[in-house]
Amino acid sequence: MSKHLTIEISEKEAEILKDFCEQEQRTQTDVIRAYIRSLSKKIDKYKNV
Q1: pLDDT for res 41
Q2: For residues 25 and 19, what is the distance between their CA atoms, to the nearest angstrom?
Q3: Is pLDDT at 47 greater than 70 in this prediction?
Q4: What pLDDT, on a 0 to 100 scale, did the predictor assign at position 9?
Q5: 31 and 24 in contact (C-beta within 8 Å)?
Q6: If you write DSSP's letter for every residue of 1-49 in order, what string do you get?
Q7: pLDDT at residue 42, rounded to an integer
Q8: Considering the entire predicted model, what is its pTM?
Q9: Is residue 29 within 8 Å of residue 23, measured between CB atoms?
Q10: Domain coverage including residue 41
């Protein structure tokens, strides 16, 4: 099951994301999903999953 997420970011943040994605040759969705997954390492609840 997927969830739809809408966020509002500044022009500067959008430019940073765009530039990073171009540099890494990844989509914005891929970069954001990877970052969210990395957060699980910082939350005790998910450490043993």
Answers
A1: 83
A2: 10
A3: no
A4: 97
A5: yes
A6: ----------HHHHHHHHHHHHHHT--HHHHHHHHHHHHGGGSGGGTT-
A7: 85
A8: 0.78
A9: no
A10: 11-46
